[in-house]
Amino acid sequence: MASTEDMSEPTQAQPVLPRENLTIVSASGRHVFSVELARTPRQQQVGEMFRTNLPDNSGMLFLWATPQQSDMWMENTLVPLDIVFIAPDHRIQAIAENAVPRSLAHISSHGPVSATLELAGGVTAKMGITVGDKVEAPSLEKKS
């Protein structure tokens, strides 16, 4: 059966997606975020595009069906983002801090990841979140 999902070029922000709480456990403490879940190809294609604000306690979690290299970009994204790549063991594999709005440069996980998390630009540095920190979320636990 063919997908009827529209994969044309996005022209506006998508509606708010279903959310869950995600916690990053770091040396500086437990940091809880309310994250939208980008599960479908269209939701993942649009991501944070055209949004003008991302609060420090919010984000978007991109869940991959199987571990894969994740390549993101900032086309039509109007605010800086920290892009956090989550390894299959639920630890942070890499962080791209303050990705430049509207940039077409590819931002790579440099290896297979099970999910990618977008947070407001500067949040990881401000909260002391680093590579190796543990990520806890119901959607990640279901993938184990």
UniProtKB/TrEMBL annotation:
User: Which residue windows are transmembrane per the record?
Assistant: none
In Pfam terms, one family for this protein is DUF192
The protein here is known as: DUF192 domain-containing protein
